[in-house]
Design a protein that fits this description.
Largest sheet: none
Number of strands: 0
Number of helices: 24
Order of helices and strands: HHHHHHHHHHHHHHHHHHHHHHHH
Strand content: under 5%
Radius of gyration: 35 Å
Structural class: mainly alpha
Shape: elongated
Length: about 550
């Protein structure tokens, strides 16, 4: 009995630990981003549907002779706002329409507003010369504060972006200084407490080197509950720049994920969050996600028409692709290593089977000796009968599990033989993608579930009355109710292992892949519900008999 108690958890822990090492851990936030990317087409369709409805409603009044120019201007403005960070060509088109309508109205405020929208579109597309040519034509004298603030903020962003594009020690400081002066003017005009006032204050502090103040201001901005998805993305992405500059990539990643998800949900294509996230993950060695995100960034930049963004993204793409090739070679070496480990594991199982066979022979001999002693020693007859029963029970358990191990070994050896032949053939033909596909098709979670289900079947075959006997220790409302597909649940499986003789919480935790604290919590909760004292509970479990 003691040998089986030692061998069973060791064997199970070896299999489960191998499965655990084969799984790549993934953060829940990255999973959420991956799901958002998969759903991006749905968000874009919703965006296009909204635009189509707007155009349809405008088309209904296209031939309306009573429609005046201010209404036409308002409609073009609504369409521009929908396209502003979604598609450059369409945004530029409606910005031109706005300008034409404003000129027909001869309204200085509307003319200024239209030119600002045109300048924003040009700047977002990376057309710096055209942006400056357009903005230099603007005269803000007499304009409302809101339009003057928008103009100064746009000029500030122009010089900031130009400085980032040059990224040198000669031109960039001068451009940054000009940008700061324009931002100062904008901040004097934006209403205090507004999103633009808070955001541009933080942006100016970053550009001025006051990163501690910017960190506090942008954190406070992100805590607001009234931000749109686009505003949330801008604030989170800008805050991440501070952590990236400080070398705190781990702090920047959650913010970039938050920004990228918000960009996807708002169908924002003019964005840098996905690109920056891909760069960080590439440097951290997460090539798989980095490749996926850089491809998404390229799609967004191409869809929007952001020229400077496509140049930035294309620069890192060859590096990531080169790393992917290196990883494939590494996977090849890993497959060879796994083949060796698998062979060693098979040898270990064979050795364990031989040991168990020998122990069975010893147990049979011990049973014969006990039987002879029983005849000679009538005085201790009752104790010998009980000992004989326990040995018989142990023998039965071992025989069942020996059969299980031989069957499992046979199936496992067959699978490994097919797996090995498949790998040898694909390696011979250098089908690396097929090799990766074969490895990815190994469902270790399913194998683990099948392993535990087989344990449940064999245990219930040995102890068919275990569940009703277990439930008899509880009030009716506290008794275990299994689902249709369950043979045993976690509560029953813990005490099934105890009935098998595995009493150590560490061994139970390894077999079921829980922490020791979790096992202790399960046991305490179950015992507290029982109608028998806690100290007697496990003794009553051990009294449950085999068939």
């Amino acid at each position: 009995m003691n040998l089986v108690q030692r061998l069973l958890p060791v064997t199970l822990s070896l299999v489960l630990s191998l499965a655990a090492r084969s799984q790549s851990p993934a953060e829940s936030s990255l999973n959420e981003l991956n799901q958002a990317i998969e759903s991006s087409a749905r968000y874009d369709q919703e965006k296009l549907k909204k635009i189509a409805l707007l155009k349809a409603s405008f088309a209904d009044n296209k031939d309306n002779p009573n429609e005046d120019l201010p209404i036409l201007f308002s409609r073009h403005l609504r369409l521009y706002e929908e396209y502003k960070v979604f598609n450059y060509d369409s945004a530029f088109h409606y910005a031109r329409k706005l300008q034409e309508t404003a000129l027909r109205l001869d309204d200085p405020s509307r003319i200024l507003s239209a030119r600002l929208k045109l300048g924003f579109s040009l700047l977002s597309s990376g057309m710096f010369k055209e942006t400056l040519d357009s903005l230099n034509k603007i005269n803000t004298n007499g304009a409302p504060d809101s339009l003057r603030a928008e103009y100064y903020a746009l000029m500030g962003r122009y010089y900031y972006d130009l400085g980032d594009f040059d990224n040198d020690t000669y031109n960039t400081p001068a451009y940054t200084e000009k940008g700061n002066r324009y931002m100062d003017s904008a901040l004097q005009l934006y209403p205090p407490g507004s999103f633009h006032a808070s955001y541009f204050k933080g942006l100016k502090e970053i550009k001025s080197g006051a990163r501690t103040e910017a960190l506090a201001d942008l954190r406070e901005l992100l805590r607001r509950q009234d931000l749109s998805w686009h505003q949330l993305a801008i604030a989170a992405s800008t805050l991440s720049d501070i952590y990236i500059y400080n070398g705190q990539a781990d702090m920047a990643v959650p913010l970039l994920i938050q920004a990228a998800i918000a960009d996807i949900k708002s169908s924002t294509k003019e964005t840098a969050a996905m690109f920056n996230l891909a760069q960080i993950l590439y440097k951290k060695g997460d090539v798989k996600n980095a490749s996926s995100y850089i491809e998404a960034a390229i799609r967004d930049a191409s869809f929007y028409g952001a020229r400077q963004r496509k140049v930035q993204v294309s620069a890192i793409l060859p590096l990531i692709e080169g790393e992917k090739i290196s990883r494939v070679e590494g996977e090849k070496r890993t497959l060879v290593t796994y083949s060796v480990i698998t062979t060693l594991l098979l040898l270990l199982v064979i050795i364990l089977a031989i040991i168990i066979f020998r122990q069975v022979g010893k147990l049979k001999l011990a049973k014969k000796v006990i039987t002879e002693a029983h005849i000679k020693e009538q005085a201790i007859n009752q104790r010998l009968v009980e000992a004989n029963y326990k040995l018989s029970e142990a023998n039965k358990i071992k025989e069942e599990y020996i059969g299980y191990f031989f069957n499992a070994d046979s199936e496992f050896f067959s699978k490994m033989e097919k797996f090995k032949k498949s790998l040898e053939q694909k390696i011979a033909y250098r089908k690396w993608e097929d090799i990766i596909a074969v490895v990815n098709n190994i469902n270790l979670k399913k194998e683990k579930e099948e392993l535990l289900r087989n344990f449940d079947k064999i245990f219930l075959k040995l102890f068919p009355d275990f569940i009703p006997a277990f439930n008899a220790l509880f009030q009716e409302e506290d008794q275990v109710q299994l689902k249709d597909h369950e043979l045993l649940n976690t509560d029953l499986r813990i005490f099934a292992l105890i009935r098998m003789g595995i009493h150590e919480n560490e061994k139970i935790a390894r077999i079921l892949e829980y922490s020791v604290n979790t096992i202790n919590t399960y046991k305490t909760k179950i015992k507290n519900k029982s109608i028998v004292p806690n100290e007697e509970f496990e003794h009553r479990i051990m009294e449950i008999r085999t068939l």
